[in-house]
């Protein structure tokens, strides 16, 4: 899956699927299953590194995980998030750091948070032929301003302006996070590039979930999340069984011995 194929899915009316992954184990499972795109999200900061927000993760850490995922994936479009403060300073900083992601990871695109306010930066990246996805609605990197990451964004005029600004600036797609379903529907109808929703209802051109959340690994359970498995429970039970087996000398048995 490359960027033009991803964009064309909208005109073809084919819903796009995206999940986040941060390592070769999960990325290869998702790729084998046939997901269209794998996002190395800066949610890495929370689900992998254990921070409370996405603010601490560094560009070098994003590149480290981005390279692993891009190398592990055969078919899906790999997108890497530009982390907090790696692009907000200037469009020059954004081009330099997005350039590092492309050179050092092999990813097919980058993502940044913002619409109107990031339009000039998106334009600069597009001028360099660096495919960029925008992210409007609830923007986790703006948590200090928004107050909390669960704050549903309802300003229709602002959201539409952000989406249109991102499209005009040259973004190839836009993530819509935590916005009312009817606003996501309007935006999806008013722009020609694919919208990828998370907590944005069923009218988006595609959907994205955080992998560890949808597998039931992280314990995060907001209203918008459908858990497709309870991997945490399976792994917990397996670990408890292993401990009991070793302690009771049930493992290893003859079949596991040389
Ligand atoms: O970092 C992330 O996981 C994301 C998705 C929620 C879209 O940006
Ligand atoms: Na992100």
TrEMBL record:
Q: Which InterPro entries match?
A: Pantoate_hydroxy_MeTrfase, Pyrv/PenolPyrv_kinase-like_dom, Pyrv_kinase-like_dom_sf
**Which positions bind Mg(2+)?**
42, 81, 113
EC code(s) of this entry:
2.1.2.11
The answer to whether the entry has keyword Isomerase is no
UniProt keyword list:
Cytoplasm, Magnesium, Metal-binding, Methyltransferase, Pantothenate biosynthesis, Transferase
List required co-factors.
Answer: Mg(2+)
Going by the record, the broad EC class of this enzyme is transferase
Family annotation (SUPFAM superfamilies): Phosphoenolpyruvate/pyruvate domain (SSF51621)
Q: Which reaction does it catalyse?
A: (6R)-5,10-methylene-5,6,7,8-tetrahydrofolate + 3-methyl-2-oxobutanoate + H2O = 2-dehydropantoate + (6S)-5,6,7,8-tetrahydrofolate
Q: How is the cofactor bound?
A: Binds 1 Mg(2+) ion per subunit.
Positions binding 3-methyl-2-oxobutanoate in this chain are 42-43, 81, 111
Q: Which domain of life is it from?
A: Bacteria
**Where's the active site on this chain?**
177 (proton acceptor)
Q: Which GO terms describe its cellular component?
A: cytoplasm
So, what pathway does this thing act in?
Answer: Cofactor biosynthesis; (R)-pantothenate biosynthesis; (R)-pantoate from 3-methyl-2-oxobutanoate: step 1/2
Gene Ontology terms describing biological process: methylation; pantothenate biosynthetic process
Q: Predominant location of this chain?
A: cytoplasm
State the Gene Ontology terms under molecular function. Answer: 3-methyl-2-oxobutanoate hydroxymethyltransferase activity; magnesium ion binding; methyltransferase activity
Q: Where in the cell is it found?
A: Cytoplasm
Please describe the quaternary structure of this protein.
Homodecamer; pentamer of dimers.
What NCBIfam families is this protein classified in? Answer: panB, PRK00311.1
Role, per record: Catalyzes the reversible reaction in which hydroxymethyl group from 5,10-methylenetetrahydrofolate is transferred onto alpha-ketoisovalerate to form ketopantoate.
Q: Which family does it belong to?
A: Belongs to the PanB family.
Identify this protein by name.
3-methyl-2-oxobutanoate hydroxymethyltransferase
- Tell me what gene encodes this: panB
């Amino acid at each position: 899956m490359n960027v033009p194929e991803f964009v064309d899915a909208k005109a073809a009316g084919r819903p796009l699927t995206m999940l986040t992954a941060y390592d070769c184990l999960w990325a290869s499972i998702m790729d084998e299953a046939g997901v269209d795109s794998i996002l190395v999200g800066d949610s890495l900061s929370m689900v992998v590194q254990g921070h409370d927000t996405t603010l601490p993760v560094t560009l070098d850490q994003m590149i480290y995980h981005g390279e692993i995922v891009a190398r592990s994936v055969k078919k899906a479009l790999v997108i890497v998030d530009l982390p907090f403060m790696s692009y907000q300073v200037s469009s020059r900083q954004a081009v330099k750091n997005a350039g590092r992601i492309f050179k050092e990871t092999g990813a097919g695109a980058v993502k940044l948070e913002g619409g109107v306010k990031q339009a000039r930066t998106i334009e600069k990246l597009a001028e360099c032929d660096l495919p960029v996805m925008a992210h409007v609605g609830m923007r986790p990197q703006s948590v200090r301003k928004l107050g909390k990451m669960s704050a549903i964004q309802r300003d229709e005029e602002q959201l539409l302006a952000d989406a249109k600004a991102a499209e005009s600036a040259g973004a190839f797609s836009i993530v819509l996070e935590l916005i009312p379903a009817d606003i996501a529907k309007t935006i999806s109808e008013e722009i020609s590039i694919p919208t990828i929703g998370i907590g944005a209802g069923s009218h988006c051109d595609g959907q994205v979930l955080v992998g560890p959340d949808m597998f039931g690994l992280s314990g995060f359970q907001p209203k918008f999340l459908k858990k497709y498995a309870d991997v945490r429970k399976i792994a917990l039970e397996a670990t408890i069984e292993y401990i009991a087996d070793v302690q009771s000398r049930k493992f290893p048995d003859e079949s596991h011995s040389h």
